[in-house]
Amino acid sequence: MKQSRKKIAGVIVVLLLSVCFYVGGKQFFKHQKSIDEVKHIKIGVSIYDEYDTYIAELMQEVSSLAKKKEMEEKIAITVDVQSAGGSQITQNDQIESFVDKNYNVVCVGLVDRTDASGVIDKAKSADIPIIFFNRELVNEDLERWDKIYYVGADAVQSGVMQGEIILEACKKNFESIDKNKDGILQYVIIEGEPGHQDALVRTEYSVKTVVNAGYTLQKLGNEIANWNKAQAITKMTSLLEKYGEEIEVVISNNDEMALGALEAIKNSNIESYPLVVGVDGVQGGLESVKKKEMIGTVYNDYRGQAKAIVEMAFALSLQQDFPEELNLIENKSIYLPYQKITYDNVQEYIRMLN
């Protein structure tokens, strides 16, 4: 009788262990769906602005990887990408539409990273998981629900790497960079949006990295160009009219604005061009580095981010665990590392991304 009781207790323990399989940060689902159970996965994507070159490249990669996943898994996958046109109200309406259409997952590049509540509330009410990307929501919002995730990169790292690119150039030939021979680097900043975390952090750490290496910097001016090339042309033209040859370094929060700044420089009357450095590693930026117009850029791994978004959306749709190689932090966030690009290695990235 005692042996029988021991056997029963052993069976109960095994059953309990088989149910409680939450180990090492993996998700826990009461019922994991098989491919056969799900005939069609629908992913709704809302981006803050369709005219952002980096976001456009990211979305192209997401669509391409979704098609590849569709062929591999033999299951229909629809990726519905919509632009909010810079309006948080429009974005909230888009999420509501995705919810009404019973999409499996919604992916959101926030218009306003400080105002994610509308998006979260709409998706949570329908129990639809949310993957935020590129624009990191505030931590309090990330913790509001266990089906909120984030895919992006560490903005501090990008700012530090911009500073390191400037330092490498200074070590090679400071005399030619210091046009007025005063031993001080006179610089201007072309910023993204007011209050945007990436803009603030990149600006701070690019400058701090150079200062911490022992160089003296003097800020002549800064202009906000909202990540946009056309706006950057206008803003850089204004800075050139005011400071002209005094500008020795141009630090841009992204490549599109750096390219706009370069165009303004080419259209000006200055003879000695300043250093120009960007972030993102978009095609235009890479070509500019190859031509030695920009001294460098910082690659923001859109391919890695796109892969993470697609793999997470697929797993969430089937209520399955995420692939281990995604390396989520606290089962919530994925941060892809940035990479420095200069003339010395730009050809590698051009080959890789073509």
TrEMBL record:
Cellular compartments per GO CC: outer membrane-bounded periplasmic space
Species whose genome carries this gene: Candidatus Galacturonatibacter soehngenii
Protein name: D-galactose/methyl-galactoside binding periplasmic protein MglB
SUPFAM superfamilies: Periplasmic binding protein-like I
CDD domains for this protein: PBP1_GGBP
Localization per record: Cell envelope
Keyword match Signal: yes
Keywords linked to the UniProt accession: Calcium, Metal-binding, Periplasm, Signal, Sugar transport, Transport
Domain Periplasmic binding protein: 43-316
Main location: other
